[in-house]
Amino acid sequence: MLLEQNQQTTIESTIATLPVMEAFYTLQGEGAHTGRAAYFIRLGGCDVGCFWCDVKESWDVNAHPKLSIQSIVDGALEYPGRMAVITGGEPLMHDLTELTVALQKAGFQTNIETSGVCKAVTGSWDWICFSPKKFKAPNPDIYNKANELKVIIYNQSDFAFAESFVPHLRPDCRLFLQTEWGRSNEMLPRIVEYVKDHPQWQISLQTHKYMDIP
Ligand code: SF4
């Protein structure tokens, strides 16, 4: 009986699972891939603590069903788009190697949106959107891996925060400034002027919110 229990434990522990808060097919609304069809996989768990976070329900890693890698990939395969966006929460709280390898084997482009707060940047990525937050420092390991820097502008000091990362990034890293949604009225005109004066930056709009889609 003890042997059977041990065998069962071993079998279960080899089946990788991840906590999935939600997964849905929509258009990427932000950043470099704006407008493209994408399957979003929102993983549970985040300890960054942004006070303006609009997905606070993602923070508790134990509040979401743990799904097998295969079932996550099967869910993505139900739709014709072949771009998968792993988001959170803070997805790099988890080892994403198995998920990304499985998605790529199934024909998906693997994109991630991350604050970079992690012990290690795990996973096989086609596109890394690095979105650092003031509330917790990122692991510098992400600097030379990021394809895109996207900084949320909540107040004026966030422009300097955004600039502080640029010297550490690859020369081809795309640079985006995006207003925090609730502060659009005040910050959007400032971002427009900033981009006009600093044309290495682009504005990123949360176009999915304007379109009223997920
Ligand atoms: S890193 Fe993202 S999910 Fe985590 S608190 Fe900040 S905005 Fe929310």
TrEMBL record:
UniProt entry tagged with the keyword Lyase: yes
Chain positions recorded as substrate binding sites: L27, Q28, G29, R42, T87, P214
Cofactor: Mg(2+); [4Fe-4S] cluster; S-adenosyl-L-methionine
Sequence positions that bind S-adenosyl-L-methionine: W52, C53, D54, G89, S131, P132, K133
A single GO molecular function term of this UniProt record: magnesium ion binding
Family: Belongs to the radical SAM superfamily. 7-carboxy-7-deazaguanine synthase family.
Protein name: 7-carboxy-7-deazaguanine synthase
Source organism (scientific name): Spirosoma arboris
Gene: queE
